[in-house]
Specification:
Length: 358
């Protein structure tokens, strides 16, 4: 957008056309889609090849005119091609081309309603909303409610009229899912297929977890220490590693939550607020919920017979605290905060050995 060469404009029918496809000069019969001024089509080699505003004293802002031109062209590309290349979904689901059977466009750059820029449907009836944005453009004066819908936000700020086609149809850059209910509902099952047990937890619940961000059991972005934070239906969620979480919580429970422990956790910033009412509660019920509490009770029963396995025969792979999905190259991975590569024979002298169900 730096040199703002207007290679596209709006013709008399409202269609966006390229400068090469129209007559030269005012005979092009084209206007600026923003200020509605007549345009001149320049085909020569002396002056810049493209459209120019006819009046020398026009009051239109060329930058805004260019943005509106790009916006309308983006709508037309989706309408014409009936497809878009979608972004990754938090590194869980890959991006790719979605082909549409129906596409309708809003065709207004500035508006007060809550209509998205593009509404498209696939052949199976799934609906997708596409919202185009610029760094300096606010599309809606009222926030759109994308609850339970599939919506992609496409940032056009770094594009030009010349790059727009390739960007929309073949790139996943500068695009993000505002919402994808279908993907969100499949997260836990996708991890389960690879042997990883996770639960989707709302961030408001994480504040009562008792583990600070440093010890959080949420899955992190690849090659990063930052947690994956998923936005869905106006709320934020983390992907909690179930086995690691339960092991950490059991350790917290076994260590006891006395006044000294409360102060220590407060000092670490693990929980926003502690009060006496909280600690008068059943700690297992508070941390685990009814279902998880049952599993803790079962775990306590298992401890009663763990000594039936002779010490010399124990391995970490028999232990309930072993994070099976992280085991590599013959090593175990303990959920008790030890290094990822744990020698299996460590179980012979481990006080936390807790036999799995047979």
């Amino acid at each position: 957008m730096n040199d703002m060469v207007f290679s596209w404009a709006e013709d008399a029918t409202g269609k966006m056309v390229h400068v090469d496809s129209v007559k030269q000069g005012l005979d092009c019969c084209c206007v600026c889609p923003n200020c509605r001024e007549r345009l001149i089509a320049r085909h020569g080699t002396v002056r810049t090849h493209g459209f120019a505003h006819h009046s020398d004293e026009r009051g239109a802002n060329l930058k805004i005119c260019y943005m509106v031109t790009m916006y309308k062209l983006a709508e037309q590309i989706i309408m014409q091609e009936k497809r878009i290349f979608t972004p990754y979904y938090y590194g869980i689901f890959k991006g790719g081309t979605i082909e549409f059977s129906e596409v309708s466009i809003d065709n207004r750059f500035d508006r007060d309603d809550k209509q998205p820029d593009v509404i498209a449907k696939t052949s199976d009836g799934t609906q997708y909303l596409i919202e185009f944005t610029f760094a300096s453009k606010v599309s809606h004066k009222e926030r759109i409610d994308y609850a339970n819908l599939n919506c992609i936000e496409v940032d056009l700020s770094n594009q030009t009229l010349e790059t727009l086609w390739e960007f929309l149809l073949n790139s996943n850059e500068n695009k993000k899912w505002l919402n994808n209910q279908g993907f969100f509902d499949k997260i836990e099952s996708i991890y389960l297929e690879s042997g990883r047990y996770v639960k989707i937890k709302e961030e408001s619940d994480c504040k009562c977890c008792g583990l600070n961000n440093h010890l959080c059991c949420g899955i992190k972005l690849k090659d990063s220490h930052r947690l994956i934070i998923i936005e869905n239906n106006g709320k934020q969620y983390r992907i909690c590693k179930t086995e690691e979480f339960n092991s950490s919580k059991r350790q917290l429970h076994e260590n006891g939550v006395n006044s000294e422990g409360r102060q220590r956790l407060n000092n670490q910033g693990c929980v926003d607020q502690f009060d006496e009412e909280l600690y008068s509660m059943d700690i297992e019920q508070f941390y685990f919920g009814s279902d998880e509490k049952k599993s803790v009770e079962m775990s306590n029963q298992e401890k009663n017979h763990k000594n039936s396995i002779s010490i010399e025969n124990r391995t970490c792979f028999m232990c309930k605290r072993n994070l099976a999905w992280l085991c590599r190259d013959g090593y175990a991975c303990c959920g008790m905060g030890r290094p990822h590569k744990e020698k299996p024979e460590t179980a012979k002298e481990c006080d936390y050995f807790d036999v799995k169900e047979s």
